[in-house]
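User: Thanks for the earlier help. One more: YeeE/YedE family protein. Can you show the sequence and predicted structure together?

Assistant: Of course, both are below.
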Amino acid sequence: MRLLIAILCGVLFGAGMIISDMVNPARVLAFLDVTGDWDPSLAFVMGGALIPSGLAYLIHRRMHAPVLADEFRVPASRLIDRPLIGGAILFGLGWGLVGLCPGPALAALTTASWQAAIFVVAMLAGMTLFRFTAGRSA
């Protein structure tokens, strides 16, 4: 049952990315170009996403445990450290350079976008490289 709900949530997320056109790098780059030909439409998409997120946090605060798990797994740390800042910078640079980030890139695979496929292959290569090098640069 948990797997089915996870798949349904992923399909819903991907459909939302496609319907909102967040899988279109040109639209994303136009949104990020605030000094040029700015397209504010994705601000409404992101703002709209705050509504279910806020509701989920309100519901979370009133529940003792999730419906399909023993406990909530919400990060307790509020520490802003170098890995978090570095990851945020890399994420922002990647999003700004190519107009894709991991979620929309995966959703874009369903549209047979070769650019998204290249992005996902590069993303998986980076994740693999990190896995093999994590903890070695202490």
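User: Great, one quick takeaway?

Assistant: The chain has six helices and no strands.
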